[in-house]
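Long-time lurker, first post. I've been practising inverse folding by hand and with some scripts of my own, and I keep getting stuck on stretches where the structure tokens seem ambiguous. Below is the full token string for one chain I'm working on. Before anyone asks, I'm not after the true native sequence, just a reasonable design that respects the backbone. If someone could post their per-position residues I'd love to compare against what I wrote down in my notebook.
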């Protein structure tokens, strides 16, 4: 995909939710998953006093974002890192530092440019090396998992991360096929998955390899583990009045986000106390009712927005 054509998901809504917290001179926005910087660019344009810390595990994304954000270079710092390193990144920067962080943005999952580059191995529709690394400096690839994991572990990943009901059948088929020759291409894996699933099931629900590829991608990049570590740590550095927006693209991610935001917005006063305890008072308030979804118009113009779920919250007090 041409860089200029990249369309960020729910861009208007993300800007509307975050910009009220980013109007003060020197307010810091941490874009934890910078990608092609579509959301970041809109916020830099809307909020002229904003300072952006853009993080991405993909070197190609950092390079592309550097070009796209060149007009705002004086207000931008780009970091090649995983987003569970946010506190360490901010601490290493010094001022404006964590106390000034007024915005957090997480746009989770695989990006359109990653999907559109066949060499990255994320897409089952095009033949490519079985890679799926968001950070191409990392060692483990999808091929390592497919060819090296024991059958039970492979089945567990497909079941938990892909919500694949034929996980055991697919894992057994993979083990049989890899004994003949290592599985190194997306097309071969896709064929193995298709052949392992009952014919009646293959006729509905789209490409039968979709869930397997999702599961492998999550495992390769430790996506759920990274999110579980990153979100609480990032929320801890958000200043009072600061806001967080998270875009998730499947139920596993969204569940983690929902659970953490519910925990932060709930009164933790033990039952039976006559008055609420200050230390247990909610630190955040929700800005969205449940998970917001894109409009039908947006999905028509940008089909990859279809599965998006947006949640947002605002910090209303510091932790005691």
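-- Answer (accepted) --
I ran through it position by position. Result:
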């Amino acid at each position: 995909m041409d860089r200029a054509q990249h369309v960020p998901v729910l861009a208007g809504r993300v800007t509307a939710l975050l910009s009220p917290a980013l109007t003060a001179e020197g307010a810091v926005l941490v874009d934890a998953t910078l990608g092609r910087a579509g959301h970041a660019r809109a916020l830099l344009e809307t909020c002229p006093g904003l300072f952006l810390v853009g993080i991405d595990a993909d070197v190609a994304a950092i390079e592309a974002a550097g070009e796209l954000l060149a007009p705002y270079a004086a207000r931008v710092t780009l970091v090649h890192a995983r987003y569970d390193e946010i506190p360490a990144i901010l601490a290493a920067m010094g001022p404006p530092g964590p106390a000034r962080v007024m915005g957090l943005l997480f746009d989770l999952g695989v990006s359109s440019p990653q999907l559109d580059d066949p060499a990255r191995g994320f897409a089952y529709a095009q033949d490519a090396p079985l890679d799926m690394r968001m950070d191409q400096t990392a060692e483990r690839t999808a091929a390592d998992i497919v060819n090296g994991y024991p059958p039970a572990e492979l089945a567990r990943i497909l079941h938990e991360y892909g919500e694949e009901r034929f996980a055991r059948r697919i894992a057994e088929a993979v083990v049989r096929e890899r004994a003949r020759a290592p599985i190194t291409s997306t097309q071969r894996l896709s064929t193995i998955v298709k052949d392992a699933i009952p014919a009646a099931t293959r006729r509905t629900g789209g490409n039968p390899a979709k869930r397997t590829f999702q599961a492998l991608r999550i495992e390769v990049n430790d996506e759920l583990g990274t999110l579980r570590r990153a979100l609480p740590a990032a929320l801890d550095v958000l200043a009072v009045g600061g806001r967080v927006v998270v875009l998730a693209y499947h139920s596993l991610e969204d569940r983690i986000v929902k659970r953490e935001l519910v925990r932060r917005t709930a009164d933790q006063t033990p039952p039976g106390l006559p008055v609420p305890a200050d230390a247990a008072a909610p630190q955040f308030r929700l800005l969205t009712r449940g998970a917001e979804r894109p409009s039908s118009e947006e999905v028509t113009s940008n089909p990859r927005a279809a599965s998006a779920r947006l949640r947002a919250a605002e910090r209303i007090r510091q932790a005691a």
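A couple of notes from the structure itself: The chain has a mean pLDDT of 90. The two ends are 47 Å apart (CA to CA). Happy to go over any region you disagree with.
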